[in-house]
Write a structure and sequence with these properties.
heterodimer; A: 421 residues; mainly alpha; Cyclin A, domain 1; Helicase, Ruva Protein, domain 3; 2 domains; 68% helix; 0% strand; globular; B: 211 residues; alpha/beta; six-stranded mixed sheet; 6 helices; GTPase-activating protein (chain A); 14-3-3 protein binding (chain A); GTPase activator activity (chain A); Rab-GAP-TBC_dom (chain A); GTPase activation (chain A)
Amino acid sequence: MSLNMRQSAGFWKRTPAHTPSVVAASFGDDGSSSSGSMRDEADSAFDIPRSLSTAMPATAAAAATEKTKKTLLETQTAAAEQQTHSSPADQADRTEEQPSAATADPTETKFAHVLSSANTDLGQLRKLSWKGIPASHRATAWRILMGYAPLSLARRQPTLQRKRKEYMDLRDQTFSRGTSALDAKLWHQITIDVPRTAPDLPLFRNALVQRSLERLLYCWAARHPASGYVQGINDLATPFYHVFLAEHPRDALDSVLDDVEADGFWCLTRLLDSIHDNYTHAQPGIQRALVKMRSLVARIDGRLADHLAGEGVEFLQFAFRWVNCLLVREVTLDCCVRMWDTYLAEEDQGFARFHIYVCAALLLKWSKQLMLMDFAQIMVFLQRPPSLMWDHKDVEVLLAEAYMYKCLYDESPSHYAGDRP
Amino acid sequence: MSGNDEYDYLFKIVLIGDSGVGKSNLLSRFTRNEFNLESKSTIGVEFATRSIQVDAKTIKAQIWDTAGQERYRAITSAYYRGAVGALLVYDIAKHPTYENVTRWLKELRDHADSNIVIMLVGNKSDLRHLRAVPTDEAKQFAAENGLFFIETSALDSSNVEQSFQQILTEIYRIVSNKAIESSQDNVQPGSGAQIIVPSVDDHTKNAGGCC
């Protein structure tokens, strides 16, 4: 039986030509009017050897340093440009099929249409969002996809106002007797972790943002005693600050921070509701995710799974953080936000289930290198994976691969395991 | 990627102690000579390795850095198994981190091998003006509890090398003594199979018979 599994896994590895068609077909199913561009992206996304070989570490590192220098808004704009305008080479590839791509941005238009209709079509929004949300629409789209803002356009603003006020009341009540009246242990842990949250990004070194994050985390933890605050939850709040602040001009930070904090609080609450047992005693959600990830990797790439086991490498040792922090630490914040576009678009628990496929795809990406490493080398490599140098395109390849694995293996635990006649 | 490096001994060491005392920076200072003011909190465990020479033997230290928060205790305590040494770190400028040392010792008693060599490490010794834990007090506590003791600064790197050197050397001495004792045991075919691993101060005592 295990031999069968091996052979099947090998079959998939050896014939990558099959994979794009599987994915393209799946994408084609859900994007009706946009299936052309989806397929286009899927195809280019699967051009793995090219995208990997052209990713030069030196330039990537330089780009990463440049990125940290940019202000919040500049980063956002750059991200938007990255999404809407591709490199000259890619443009040359695409102009044959889409001559008008440079003049109009069909993606922006589609989002504008869906988000401004009287009742947003959630299915349509999900389909569009799966392949990335333009920066200009991301905050609105995230609030809706999170289930925080309503689909009805008329009710949207009033609801947000009400929820923001609700948070402010809750916050005022929590901090009404000063910080000395707080749960000292909880407050201490939060205040030592906030300065260590995304410290490489100027936004999170801002004192106002740090105070805001402290309040948000405390309010959440105080309302969720079963888990309380667990290190790493601070990381999960960063994408929300990044996205919700990007809606506003940078010098408006003072006046908009309360709204951003409130939106961040409700969205983080929604997010954590879906993965709460990742943070309760003994973190059973993470343990389950790791078991599933291991069996998934064993079925897709049995040789890698055997090698890891042979070297004594356990998934708990390297993938615990991947699940605990939802890969926030393994990619840049900009890439993480792009990744979460897709997670939010996944109909069924993107953060709890789809994420496992993404983690498996991430590990499998380095299968070849890992096979040549011993225990210590594997551990050191996976603790600082090359994905920190990735751009959106790399993330999109990863998401497409994860989608493929999900299509093949989700809800089919004995896929390929059964004996053949 | 330096492939199969040769070593005579492989020792597993754990770094434990409260959140924010500087465990990760002690590790990065020792293994990579790096210190990061903007380091992030450790989630679960992190791993690093470095080899040193003792008595012309190569000792490879496999070091597991653990998250300080209590929620992670269930995960991190699994890493105590098989560890022959522990650096129990506190922050000399934060008294509560020193008060918690007794709780960490209990953790080790509950989950680690009873012969584990423990070194109490007062980190951030560069923060002289903020010192909250007197050196003598910690030194005395260590002596009373059979722990080695050192004060370090991962920031200015003082004593970091020495702390790891000392604990690894100590473990090496115990292990090589044990090897001698067990080989002596082996020449006596009739003797029982039980080999008692000497604790840190055993070799200074006489194994005197009773009554």
